[in-house]
Design a protein that fits this description.
The chain is an alpha/beta fold. The protein has three domains: about 1-195, 3-Layer(aba) Sandwich (Rossmann fold), CATH 3.40.50; about 215-290, NAD(P)-binding Rossmann-like Domain (Rossmann fold), CATH 3.40.50.720; about 295-430, NAD(P)-binding Rossmann-like Domain (Rossmann fold), CATH 3.40.50.720. It has 17 helices and 14 strands. The chain has helices at about 10-20, 35-40, 50-60, 70-75, 95-110, 125-135, 155-160, 175-185, 200-230, 235-240, 260-275, 280-295, 295-305, 330-340, 355-360, 395-400, 415-425, and strands at about 1-5, 25-30, 65, 80, 115-120, 140-145, 165-170, 195, 315, 345-350, 365-370, 380-385, 405-410, 425-430. The strands form three sheets. The chain has a six-stranded parallel beta sheet with strand order 3-2-1-4-5-6, with helices on both faces. The model has no long low-confidence stretch (mean pLDDT about 95). The structure holds nicotinamide-adenine-dinucleotide (NAD). Nicotinamide-adenine-dinucleotide (NAD) binds next to helix 1 and helix 5.
Length: about 425
């Protein structure tokens, strides 16, 4: 099939690449000329495991091209995916300006029947707005489909190539068949392609992210209760996750969820509900708990250093909002760094992939280190904010020798208190006894 993908970010680039991997001819379009030029030169603008190899393979086999020329992409394609950003607007609702601009440009370029697929996460009713934006520019026939994306950054290729399910929102059975054909190579093990009405598909994406965010905030609240009663949330997690009605995934307490999806989508569904006169009480609480959770490490440190944090050096391990990505949008580490800087502390940060993306946000108010141990030199404490594998079994002896005072505030519960006690560290965890 001939496919265009508008927007070559985390979702568009992965989707376009994976569609080309299954034999389709894919044209990826972006308005960011620099990004397109870099892609044409073979540079991948984001860190995503496995992506670089897959892009270069499909470019070489001439199934995947990058351009800023949206007209050409639309003219040469039957199916056009819109995968541009939907950042939060001022009222918390999703800002649709990029989606609607993309829709108009599709409309202007149309030269025959097209299927336009909303891949971006968009509120209920957006497919109708996209259809109006296209219809304002063309008399050619078209269908608008909702096909939300569920991939996780850090495992995006795997998630896209082997999705748990594919959700397609359309009322047209012929379009449903074409979408099924497109996705059939990805569900060969029998995972379902679920066809539904457009509104249900649009809402499904928000419902999924809202549910996952709820599990995290639930466990974070549970961790605070654990701390007050002297219980261990890691044990409670095991105890409830083994219940088949509950399940293990997404029960890790931590220093708050971040990323480009959970915070934005939680706020957007609250805003959609509010517009409809319905107060989404659970999600409001989920968001509030998450905001507080992003202060927990800072509060633990403020309570520990009796003389205050000003003038002290603190090391941060992990800047990305989670492991295996360079994405720092709404990352807990960045919130923590702002708190430390406001308290007058000096921040030395390290991350395997997210230094450049962090520098773009924080500038040079922070000193960055390519090697995580270098960030520890002279530090009064270490904050672990991202669960990168390389932080899981570090050389504690070496760490202790580098640090001014051996103290760790662990936002991801990576270490065993007994090990840290042996090495003479003070150790603070989330919702579980440490070494105090
Ligand atoms: P992103 O910011 O990484 O990429 C968006 C891209 O769209 C940018 O490269 C931007 O230059 C481009 N763009 C903007 N307007 C354009 C236009 N008119 N024409 C062409 N290109 C344009 O965003 P993302 O993280 O890939 O997210 C895209 C959408 O997918 C969002 O709605 C997001 O909520 C959703 N989503 C994201 C993830 C994720 O993990 N990142 C997962 C599932 C769904």
């Amino acid at each position: 099939m001939r496919i265009a993908v508008i927007g070559t970010g985390y979702v568009g680039l992965v989707a376009g690449t994976c569609f080309s991997e299954t034999g389709n001819s894919v044209i990826c379009v972006d308005v960011d000329e620099r990004k397109v030029q870099r892609l044409q030169e073979g540079h991948i603008p984001i860190y995503e495991p496995g992506l670089e190899e897959l892009v270069s393979k499909n470019v070489e086999e001439q199934r995947l091209i990058f351009t800023t020329d949206v007209d050409r992409a639309v003219r040469e394609s039957l199916i056009i995916f819109i995968a541009v950003g939907t950042p939060p607007g001022e009222d918390g609702g999703a800002d649709l300006k990029h989606v609607l601009t993309a829709a108009s440009s599709v409309g202007k370029a149309m030269n025959g029947y097209k299927i336009i697929v909303d891949k971006s996460t968009v509120p209920v009713g957006t497919a109708r707005k996209v259809a109006s934006a296209i219809a304002a520019e063309t008399t050619h026939p078209f269908n608008v489909v909702s096909n939300p994306e569920f991939l996780k950054e850090g495992a995006a290729i795997d998630d896209f190539m082997k999705p748990d399910r594919v959700v397609v929102g359309t009322d047209d059975p012929r379009v449903a068949e074409i979408m099924k054909e497109l996705y059939s190579p990805f569900v060969r093990t029998g995972n379902p392609i679920i066809i539904m009405d457009v509104a249900s598909a649009e809402l499904t994406k928000y419902a999924a992210n809202a549910m996952l965010a709820t599990r995290i905030s639930f466990m974070n609240e549970m961790s605070r209760i654990c701390e007050r009663v002297g219980a261990d949330v890691t044990k409670v997690r095991e105890g409830i996750g083994t219940d088949s009605r509950i399940g293990m995934p997404f029960l890790f307490p931590g220093c708050g969820y971040g990323g480009s999806c959970f915070p934005k989508d939680s706020r957007a569904i609250i805003s959609t509900a509010e517009e409809l006169g319905y107060p989404f009480r659970i999600m409001k609480a989920v968001e509030e708990v998450n905001g507080e959770q992003k202060r927990v490490l800072f509060e633990k440190a403020s309570a520990f250093y009796k003389g205050g944090l000003a003038g002290k050096i603190f090391a941060i391990w992990g800047l990305a909002f989670k492991a295996k990505t360079d994405d720092v949008r709404e990352a807990s580490a960045l919130v923590l760094i702002e708190q430390l800087l406001s308290a007058g502390a000096i921040v030395h940060a390290s991350d395997p992939e997210a230094i450049e993306t962090s520098r773009a946000v924080l500038g040079d108010r922070v000193k960055y280190f390519d090697h995580s141990y270098d960030a520890l030199e002279g530090a009064s404490g270490l904050f672990v904010a991202t669960e990168w594998n390389e932080f899981r079994n570090p050389d504690f002896e070496k760490m202790k020798a580098l640090m001014k005072t051996p103290v760790i505030f662990d936002g991801r519960n990576l270490y065993k208190p007994s090990t840290l006690a042996e090495y003479g560290f003070k150790y603070f965890r989330i919702g579980a006894p440490g070494v105090e």
